[in-house]
Amino acid sequence: MESKKLIWSILSVSTLLMMAGWILPLLTVKVSFEVPFIGRQDVMNETRSMFGTIAKLTEDQNYFPAFLITFFGVLVPVLKTLSMGYSLTGFRNAEKVGEWIFSINKWAMADVFSMSIIIAFLTARGMGNISAEPQAGFYVFTAYVLLSGIGAQMSMKFHRKNRR
Fold it and tell me: Has this prediction a pTM greater than 0.85?
């Protein structure tokens, strides 16, 4: 019973991290260039949250990237969180739901991975006029992904142990 309480605690904290990760600033991108006799001039300096990024992509009619971020950064985490909670209730099919969580767990990391690739690309050497800095939302959402992954693993162990 102790492990079930621990899993509920992890689920609660990870849910708060997930929601904070959606609304906190995720990434700051700065673009500048050198103007002769004037010096470095900023062309762009934008900071966006995950929801802000989705809104901007949709506004600019970049629907596919907006869909991917919405799917992997919002829908998959929400389904995973709700499923984890349901699997701990002991209701009908809770064990099957627990197995489903384990199968979607790897997809929850897709959003963090893709954002990391973008940051790496934007901060590559030779692109001195472009910089990208991860903000609090990136780290908070990454913490959610890691903590919920631990919770999913613990949930699977809990279900396997109680199946016997």
Answer: no
Contact residues for 50 (Cβ-Cβ < 8 A; gap 6+): 21, 22, 23, 26, 69, 73, 74, 137, 141
- What amino acid is encoded at 10 in this protein? I
Instruction: Give the three-class secondary structure for 146.
Output: helix
| 43 vs 29: CA distance, rounded Å | 10
C-alpha–C-alpha distance, residues 101 and 68, integer Å = 19
Backbone phi and psi for residue 38, each to the nearest 5 degrees, phi listed first = -110, -40
Q: What is the pLDDT along the chain (164 residues), one digit of tens a residue?
A: 568 889 899 999 999 999 999 999 988 888 888 888 888 888 888 898 989 988 988 999 989 888 888 888 888 888 888 888 887 777 777 666 666 676 676 666 666 666 666 666 555 544 567 777 889 998 998 899 889 888 888 887 777 777 65
3-class SS of residue 44: strand
- Ranges of each domain in the chain: 2-33+40-163
2-33+40-163: what fold? Butyryl-CoA Dehydrogenase, subunit A; domain 3 (1.20.140)
How many angstroms separate the CA atoms of 65 and 55, rounded? 11
